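Late entry, written up from scratch paper. The run itself happened at the end of the previous shift, but nothing got recorded in the book at the time, so transcribing now.
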Amino acid sequence: MLAVIIIPVLIAIIALCAGMIILHTGDEEIDEGKLNFTSANLKITDNSGQYVDLPEKYDKFATSEEIPDILKKAFVALEDKRFYIHHGVDYLRVAKAAVNNIAAGGIKEGASTITQQLIKNTHLTAEKNFKRKLTEARLALKLEKQYSKDEILTMYLNMLYFGSGEYGVKNAAYRFFGKELSELNTAECAMLTGIVKSPTKYNPINNYYNSMERTDLVLNVMCKEGVISEYERDKAKNTDIIIKNQVFKNNSAFYFLEYSIKECCEIMNITPEQLLSGGFTVKTYLDVSAQNLLQKVMTNPALTLNDAGGDTPDCAAVVLDNSTSGVKAFYSNCDYSPSTKRQPGSALKPLVCYAPAFECGAAFPATIIDDCKKNFSGYSPDNYKDEYYGKVSVRECLMNSLNVPAVEVMNMVGVEQACSYLPKLNIELEESDYNFSTALGGMTYGTNITNLAAAYSVFTRGGMFTPHAFVSEIVNTSGKTIYKRAALPKRVFGADTSYLITDILQDTAKSGSAKKLAPLKFPIASKTGTVSASDPNYNTDVYNVSYTTSETAVFWQGNMSGKAEDMLPAAITGGGSPTLMARQYFSRSVSAKNAFVVPGNVKQLNIDSCAYAEGKVILADAAAPKYAVTSELFSLRHIPKERNRSYTDLHKPQIAVKRSGENLMIELQADPRLGYEIIRRDYFSGDGVVAAFYGGKDKYSFTESPVKNAVFAPRYVVKVFYTSEGGERISRTYPLDLRL
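Output as recorded:
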């Protein structure tokens, strides 16, 4: 039993001694430039190469004098209580961690000091291995020789990430509490200290109760370490902490730049602190004029209604350049980010129902769907306001965003095949999402407006998909390009499918669910989406997705908090406020708005109106007059196999004759497209029309009295005819035998 204890301790002591030797033999050097967290060390350009001012927050470097002593002590008590004793590496803590890890049979406990954390976040990559840990320790020892404890602690508190895009205690204090550092009380200092362990889990904006529990824990630690008394601890625990969620916005591209920085970090696998201090130049797709216009539109009170609490709803919008799929502009008045997932509602229908159906030939724009209450293997969707329209074309179903037909179309394709297109468009699905509810946007986690915009822009590029991006290029301090975006498109849909969807969505913008765009005098395609709350008086999310040949934009309003007072009244739908925002943006956008190009394999074909009235799609007779045909677009890959020949052939009808007393009962099996005249040809009196039928029915009947014992019995003929567009009667005559 004693050996079990002694051996791990001896191993730890030997390892510690060996480590001491290694720690003091490295040649790594401190890069003082990387300890500079202000915007002077990071340059961001727009799509024209002009430098863009970073958000004001990146210049909010707090001096040591600004940071309250209680806040410094709170961080030391929680993160590194021997901070003022060790010289960068806490050997005692390392030894204890080593023993505990050996006993646990794995890495269960860390031993990084505040100094080491500062080095890790500014000088090293995020990879976890012994070499990196060793370099971290060596640099920490050197850092402590070059800077005082207070300078190190000040730099550390300025580089910490607190969630919601906030770096440094000064920015976090303003964001969460709307206060300067000097105004913070003990409870607020404890909350800031507790957040950094998990900025998502303990973010007080989105996870207030988690944050409060963590704050109580920090206050207990502060009391245990003698930073505050029990009385001060209890008083702080009873202090109400008001979360203000204030945001620094010294330019309209505030969030755009936030997400550009985040994207850079992901590309280079570095921390935001390393990016901010690394002297990089980041080139983005930002279009300043588009960004400013988007902000004006989204902050125009005339374009929105208030939420249930009487306030402006949460809203966000994004604009993509169709040629590159680069994000030109992004706006949000809340915590909606490019990674925020919300239910997309009917905005998903073209992507998961109609485009897959056109692609595989399961449906045409002309396909007739019976819009009525139906059950699909236990799933029974409802239309908006529970209204149903009977037999309607797929074009009309999409234009008016009918729910039951969308599910019907998915069923025609097959759920698995229909849903398989979404991951190809970077819209992630859970295994449980492969079901009929996804046809209406009912996903487990949903998607976001940037992914929606990129997915819709596939229709502007003939079915070729390119993921969206904020950043186009990254250049280091030496002027060398270390990253250049290679936007390699991949085919998801055919050019024919893409145009058919676009053509229908242009009609949607003229007279469908997005008809508020009708006043626009240029080609634009649009789709709306509305997500209902459990209470039918409210909605949770509303969308408009619109695109021209050069831009795709998504406008969203919703309820990020989930609170009842932040719900959208049912009067706010995708066809309302978001569509008005789209109209305002596109009407003032200077980007090109050319006509959408029709692919060579998309043709307008005539279909037979008579069959179409019965829900059948067959090609019209080439000889059919215009009044007898309906025109619709088709992909030449998928056209109806059957063609009508009524007008070309003018077939003789089938006749059935029965005797009824002295008369003959004649029944004529007709083609409803054609007219018929039964003519009696009498040797003495000439020709006479016995019966005339002018089309519209498939069966006619009449009676005829035959002439008995006549030397010259009359003969009968049937004239089959239709009237041409010029009024000319085109006919063919066939003899009839009316004898029994």
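The chain has a mean pLDDT of 88.
(Scratch paper discarded after transcription.)
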